[in-house]
From TrEMBL:
Region annotation (Disordered) ranges: 160-227
Name of the protein in question: Ubiquitin-conjugating enzyme E2 2
Catalytic residues in the record: C84
Ranges of compositional bias, category Acidic residues: 179-194, 211-227
Keyword Transferase assigned: yes
Origin species: Penicillium decumbens
Superkingdom, taxonomy of origin: Eukaryota
Residues in the signal sequence: none
InterPro entries documented for this protein: Ub_conjugating_enzyme (IPR050113), UBC (IPR000608), UBQ-conjugating_AS (IPR023313), UBQ-conjugating_enzyme/RWD (IPR016135)
The family this protein is said to belong to: Belongs to the ubiquitin-conjugating enzyme family.
PROSITE patterns in alphabetical order: UBC_1, UBC_2
Length: 227
């Protein structure tokens, strides 16, 4: 059943403009992914961030694993590319962390809802419990330096674009998540976040925009990898 569900999801996402997906060595349980940031107000706008996703044999009863393969300086992304995000945590409430079951993975979630949540996380950092402590501190204390490092990450990510790649625009937004008629294709996620709209959060990232850097593309030469 997992193979059938994943193939349906793969075919659906293959039509999208905001993500590139390929099967790794034709293995339906391992995907090569590239997230494309189309939100012009995002610090990460224009990024082509390669990642890998792997799925358990009992998917969708257990969550996939996700890891970025390129450097992304962000409070909620570990230096090894893994993320601190509730939707990838196993189902059920966690009394230790205080996460509710509705915030975590459930069999009703889909790959699309995971990827949309990750795109939203880029602009809506949770700095109170950062995975990358240095990034969390810098975001609070030196936002200009934080912006410069992120910009370096974005520019470096563009080297991974395919030769025939053309940057999509917000005129071709992500398809809305709708319920599928196929009984084997799980119901839509409760995550209604929009990867292309601005964040509703009051977090420290809201006052930072990529537009501040439009005039100094050639001036910054920062190393964006965190230790």
């Amino acid at each position: 059943m997992a193979e059938r569900i994943l193939m349906n999801e793969f075919r659906s996402l293959s039509k999208e403009k905001w993500v590139n997906v390929d099967l790794h060595n034709d293995d339906i349980f391992k995907w090569d992914v590239a997230l494309i940031v189309l939100n012009r107000d995002s610090l990460y706008y224009g990024g082509y961030f390669k990642a890998t996703m792997s799925f358990p044999s009992n998917y969708p009863y257990a969550p996939p694993q996700f890891r970025f393969l390129v450097p992304i300086y962000h409070p909620n992304i570990y230096p090894d590319g893994k993320l601190c995000i509730s939707i990838l945590h196993p189902p059920g409430e966690d009394e230790m962390s205080g996460e509710l079951a509705a915030e975590r993975w459930s069999p009703a979630q889909r790959v699309e809802s995971v990827l949309i949540s990750i795109l939203s996380l880029l602009d809506d950092a949770e700095v109170s419990s950062p995975a990358n402590v240095d990034a969390g501190v810098m975001l609070r204390t030196d936002p200009d330096m934080f912006r410069s490092i992120v910009k370096s990450n974005v520019e470096a990510s563009k080297a991974h674009r395919p030769a025939t790649f053309e940057m999509p625009t917000q005129d071709t937004p992500a398809r809305e998540v709708v319920e599928k008629e196929d009984d084997d294709f799980w119901a839509e996620s409760g995550d209604d976040s929009d990867p292309f709209g601005g964040s509703d959060s009051g977090s420290d990232m809201n006052h930072l925009t990529a537009s501040d850097d439009d005039d100094d593309d050639d001036d910054d030469d920062m190393n964006g990898e965190s230790d």
